[in-house]
């Protein structure tokens, strides 16, 4: 008996023994892996936030890489994050809260460390953004002939939406590798999916500076959409946050200093030595490869599955990201 | 500055200083906590699967409690699980696979341990169940006057559904404390939410015996619905699974024996000594309290939130469960 699989996505599939056998349908991951190099877009070091935790008990490095969102979303907070990283503000801070099926959160546990000068105070209106626009190229992502999502590759804000009701929104789109949703098509917002990175805040009208950040480590808490700023997503190393012990205080805060996970440094990648800069690329959401990948996420036809779902919520269509060797 | 909160659900709220101040709206958790005792239903020990992992480095016990599903769902597999537990079959086995944002899976890593006699082989048709029926009482769970879900309290299979499109299903209902969904209203199925426990299997037509189990530790993998048997949900101790180190082999399997987490025992709770039997109860999904809780999950009005979502996916309306002191 083989290991029970649950899903065969990561397995290489044997070539059929008989010529008349149809090849098994590829999994979403196999579709992405087979995409031509031209469908993959390099992520600039300036768009990567690199967070190094203290090494583990065996001395192994624990590096988390966060991709920051592109304009026009959340740029005020992201500007603050760039200033905080340039000031090496997070060095010596810690992960202070890990709440099961919710978030891991980091920053200054003392809450007394002075912030760098010149941070912007963002208004709540920046949780969303106008999405009407002109120009650009719309690419339809289809699912058995029905639209699944639209991707928009223009240079100014603007989307074509497809109708996709998921209890939190009625329209969705991809913009330069990021999922966004809307209700009315006039304003859109990014989505609290697994791995999303957001800005901790106090009660309204506070919107947070960006010094206190969290990553989603559970089922998408979509009720936070439009209530808090999202600034990026973890593209590598989420397991160093999601497998931390859960805090036992209210909201998952750690009770003692000893429980906190020290942060060695957080940098924008272009401040690192060239050899130490992580290199990642994402699958263009404008590509045919992405369209086929998204369709396969919604309709699993690879051999393990017997009943394709016929749809997928936006958080179950994660944009493929892969690490590439440094040059 | 207070700890950045992200969500204030667990905080006690101060009484307003001025009589004319409206009391802050309660959070979903506060609504559940305020429900009368008569709205809480005891879970019989015969419906609890108790899984003890090896103690942690400090000698602390690690107990996971799983509530098994009621009839008519998945009863063939659950019957097998009762036989496996009665035979103490899992004692000395281990958690062998932890895949980030997906599942933790346990069973016999050697895959050579003989199964007890008399286990049923279940057909794939049992992944779903007919849900037409008569009798029973339907309770409407409303959301700002709109239906959010129906709960059904009758004794034979039968549901009233509400229309709630979430990309995977178009109708949903609660049955004796469990969420179920449907597309056509004629067949329904349980849902792969965070904490759901299912039966690992090989390729179709295998459906698994129940000896290999998994728990969901990430965003709801709803594409597994109707493709694999669900048998219960973790109601306590999920953090002992979700915070385990992720496996580095394909599909998150651990590479070495040393990485596996030993299972000391798995028992149906009524086999334990009376004093060791965990006592839990769930909030009746037929109660007004649950209706208000579900409404508040979809429309957060507690002070942290500025824009209620206006809806909630079925996995973001977890049925409240609480531990009660042993008598």
Describe this structure in words.
2 copies of one chain form a homodimer. Chain A has a single domain (30-107, 124-323), classed as Cyclophilin. Chain A is 10% helix and 27% strand. Chain A contains 4 helices and 18 strands. In chain A, strands 2-3-15-13-14-5-4-16 form an 8-stranded antiparallel barrel. In chain A, strands 6, 7, 8, 9, 10, 11 and 12 form a 7-stranded mixed sheet that branches. Chain A has a 3-stranded antiparallel sheet with strand order 1-17-18, with no helix packed on it. The radius of gyration of chain A is 21 Å and the shape is globular. Chains A and B meet through strand 4 and strand 5 of A and strand 5 of B.
Give structural attributes.
18 strands, Cyclophilin, mainly beta, homodimer, eight-stranded antiparallel β-barrel, globular, 4 helices
Secondary-structure blueprint:
2 copies of one chain form a homodimer.
Chain A: H1 28-33, E1 40-43, E2 48-53, E3 62-68, H2 75-86, E4 94-99, E5 103-107, E6 129-130, E7 138-143, E8 146-152, E9 162-163, E10 171-175, E11 178-182, E12 187-190, E13 196-199, E14 213-216, E15 230-236, H3 239-242, E16 261-268, E17 280-283, H4 288-298, E18 321-323
Parallel strand pairs in A: 8-10
Antiparallel strand pairs in A: 1-17, 2-3, 2-16, 3-15, 4-5, 4-16, 5-14, 6-12, 7-8, 9-10, 10-11, 11-12, 13-14, 13-15, 17-18
């Amino acid at each position: 008996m083989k290991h029970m699989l649950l899903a065969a996505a990561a397995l290489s599939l044997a070539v059929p023994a008989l010529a008349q056998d149809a090849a098994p349908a590829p999994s979403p991951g196999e579709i992405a892996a087979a995409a031509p190099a031209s469908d993959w877009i390099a992520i600039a070091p300036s768009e990567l936030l690199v967070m190094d935790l203290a090494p583990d008990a065996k001395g192994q490095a624990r590096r988390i890489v966060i991709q920051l969102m592109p304009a026009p979303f959340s740029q005020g907070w992201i500007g603050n994050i760039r200033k905080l990283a340039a000031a090496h503000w997070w060095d010596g801070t810690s992960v202070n809260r890990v709440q099961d099926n919710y978030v891991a959160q980091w920053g200054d546990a003392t809450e007394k460390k002075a912030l760098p000068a010149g941070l912007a105070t963002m208004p709540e209106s920046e949780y969303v953004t106008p999405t009407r626009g002109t120009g650009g190229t719309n690419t339809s992502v289809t699912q058995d002939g029905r639209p699944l999502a639209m991707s928009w590759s223009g240079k100014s804000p603007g989307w074509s939406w497809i109708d996709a009701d998921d209890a939190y929104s009625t329209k969705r789109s991809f913009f330069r590798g990021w999922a966004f949703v809307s209700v009315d098509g006039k304003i859109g917002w990014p989505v609290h999916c697994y791995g999303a990175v957001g800005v901790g805040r106090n009660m309204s009208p506070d919107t947070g500076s960006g010094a206190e950040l969290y990553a989603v480590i559970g089922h998408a808490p979509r009720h936070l959409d439009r209530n808090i700023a999202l600034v990026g997503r973890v593209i590598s190393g989420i397991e160093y946050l999601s497998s931390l012990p859960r805090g036992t205080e209210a909201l998952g805060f750690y009770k003692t200093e000893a429980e906190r996970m020290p942060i060695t440094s957080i940098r924008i990648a272009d401040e690192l030595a060239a050899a130490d800069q992580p290199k990642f690329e994402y699958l263009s959401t404008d590509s045919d490869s992405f369209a086929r990948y998204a369709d396969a996420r919604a309709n699993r036809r690879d051999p393990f599955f017997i009943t394709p779902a016929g749809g997928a919520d936006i958080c179950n269509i994660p944009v493929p990201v892969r690490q590439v060797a440094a040059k």
